[in-house]
Design a protein that fits this description.
The chain has 221 residues and is mainly beta. The protein has 2 domains: 108 residues, 7 Propeller (Methylamine Dehydrogenase, Chain H); 97 residues, no CATH class. 9% of the residues lie in helices and 43% in strands. The strands form 5 sheets. It has a 4-stranded antiparallel β-sheet, with no helix packed on it. Strands 7-8-9-10 form a 4-stranded antiparallel β-sheet, with no helix packed on it. A 4-stranded antiparallel β-sheet has the order 11-12-13-14. The longest helix is centred in the last third of the chain and has 12 residues. It is globular. The model has no long low-confidence stretch (mean pLDDT 79).
């Protein structure tokens, strides 16, 4: 059984050891209020494919998030602490409602392993990064893919939203970081409506791809 430790910053001593998973603990993070910890697990042995929630004070396990079919799980809370996003080598990211234990959405789109995922500050948009060389933006409420950020020449290792949520920065093994304007950080139906009003006609397939407008949004489909 693998361990996660909580440390006292002043003394440098472990306050609590959470004997948590059956394989590597690959990520750990606090909820925004500091009362809960989320851990993700998954080594090459593939014995543990879960994320788990823990009470910080007691160390009691609160929930197990099961469903991923492969290892390598990363896990992060949303800014309001109501949701968790996980990413796995099974090729998916999943959004979970805290306390529910079942995924709200399974996010399919990457052609290789999603390495990580982050919520925007308002919790409405997510960004995932992958070994396929892309970052992808998702609508949290619907689970729909909003935009694919292509341009890196290697796997994308991390991504973060700016404080005003108008930009995303990505970092890659191609030895570059890139800044992206986040036009899709507004609701996608509002974006599509603005585009249609601007151009005065329905969107073509190429324009949908270019502007990140999915088929489920009206405007030429």
């Amino acid at each position: 059984m693998k361990k996660m430790r909580r440390w006292d910053v002043g003394s440098g001593k472990a306050l609590r050891v959470l004997r948590v998973h059956e394989d590597w603990v690959t990520s750990a993070g606090f909820s925004p209020d500091g009362k809960t910890v989320v851990t993700g697990s998954g080594g090459f042995l593939g014995r543990d494919k879960t994320a788990r929630l823990w009470d910080v004070v007691s160390g009691v396990e609160l929930d197990i998030l099961c469903g991923h079919e492969n290892e390598g799980i990363s896990a992060q809370f949303s800014a309001d602490g109501e949701r968790v996003v996980t990413a796995s080598r099974d090729g998916t990211a999943r959004v979970w409602q805290v306390g529910r234990g079942k995924p709200l959405h399974e996010l399919h789109g990457h052609y290789s392993t999603p390495i990580g995922a982050q919520f925007s500050h308002d919790g409405k948009i997510m960004v995932t990064v992958s070994r396929d060389g892309t970052a992808r933006l998702w609508d949290v409420a619907s689970g729909k893919e909003l935009r694919v950020l292509r341009g890196h020449g290697g796997e994308v290792r991390s991504a973060q939203f700016s404080a005003d949520e108008q930009m995303v920065v990505t970092a890659s093994r191609d030895q570059t970081a890139r800044l992206w304007r986040c036009e899709v950080c507004d609701p996608i139906d509002e974006i599509a409506a603005k585009l249609l009003k601007t151009i005065g006609r329905d969107l073509t397939d190429e324009e949908r791809r270019r502007f990140g407008v999915p088929d489920w949004v009206p405007g030429g489909k």
